[in-house]
Amino acid sequence: MTVPAAFKLLLLAGLLAGVFAQDFEDNAAQSSKEDVAESERGEAEARLFHKQAENAVYNFTTILVDSIMDVTQGRIEVREGVRVEGKYWYSNGVEKRTVVYVSDENGYRVISDTTELLAEKPNFDANGRISVHTNIAGQDFSYTISADDIARYKEVAERKARV
Ligand SMILES: *[C@@H]1O[C@H](CO)[C@@H](O)[C@H](O)[C@H]1NC(C)=O
After folding, report:
1. In the record, which residues are listed under signal peptide (predicted)?
2. Which residue is closest in CA terms to ligand 1's atom 11?
3. Which of 70, 84, 85, 162 could be disulfide-bonded to 122 (CB atoms 3.0-4.6 Å)?
4. Ligand 1 centroid – CA 134 distance (Å)
């Protein structure tokens, strides 16, 4: 290789490196602009979310009592702005667990978490009933279903399946 040829190659390599470096800087500038836009969008969303949270008001209750399987389950929650107070529980005939919680500007906290013993074993009752109660924003909705009802529905479903 002659000296001028080697020099040209070096020059070409230098130029290419320069082009790539410029390209890289452009990309970096572009993505940092995008990062700023992204974080501004994130802050705006957080402000909106906080404003919505401050105005949020709701409450609901849902309670299930199943004396056929000796099971209960329920939850009550009341929200006023950023503060939420609630309680949920469930039992299986042997023990019942109840958790009381609160969530506010200091985060979510469990106030109490208790388990009480109910009996040695569940008290199944083939003639029992299942009652479901909900109240959402002051609207009550309840129904009860007995073991007989379930047997009847099953019969109807089986009859339908045969035809
Ligand atoms: C639950 O919501 C209803 C309807 O919005 C309201 O009348 C009731 O006072 C609320 N209850 C509680 C405990 O905040």
Report:
1. 1-21
2. 59
3. 70
4. 13
